[in-house]
């Protein structure tokens, strides 16, 4: 599983630099979100709340209400989990770059080609373009030697200028991830898919995969208030205490 995530993360890292450098008119997105997941072990998970993204702060903030009230701040490939009183409860490494998400790509008008046309170097080149009915299927092959070590082809399906589906392969031609972008809306000129479904496959355990479906509603673009939420600070001063608690383990209960 580590190899699967590693390849996808490398793509995010390589493309994220160009995505963050483009000056665009729009800078903020907020939406209600419901995330349904089916994990590789067969368990189901539901998360409900609101998501905030400001490309200037380059962080994703989830204000969750279910299954419990908490705040998730995703920044610099790290997830910070805070409780209702903004105390730091958990820190995890994330296979997510804020600059390379549906939020950032929609704001910078790079979602239609997944940011491929604006990379700082020629990481990928178009190998084949096919038309199937109303769909245009584009196959991209890695042209950068370093990229070829970790990633294989990318296959995109577009209807008009909207990205409909994306498949990411490893260098061994094994499928790493599939994403589907549906139910698009246009708000202030920003094209945004209100439903994103992603399947991530294990390359070490055949047949194992994670399924995640994110459904958005009440989309706002360039919201002028709630600035404190968009730039939600992380209490890094609590990090040392949290790490110490982890090392010491849970304290024995007193009866």
Automatic annotation (TrEMBL):
Is this entry keyworded Signal? Answer: yes
Compositionally biased region (Basic and acidic residues): 245-255
Q: What residue range is the signal peptide?
A: 1-23
User: Superkingdom of the source?
Assistant: Bacteria
- Region of interest called Disordered, as start-end residue ranges on this chain: 232-255
Give the record's keywords alphabetically.
Signal
Q: What is this protein called?
A: DUF4412 domain-containing protein
**Organism for this UniProt entry:** Rhabdobacter roseus
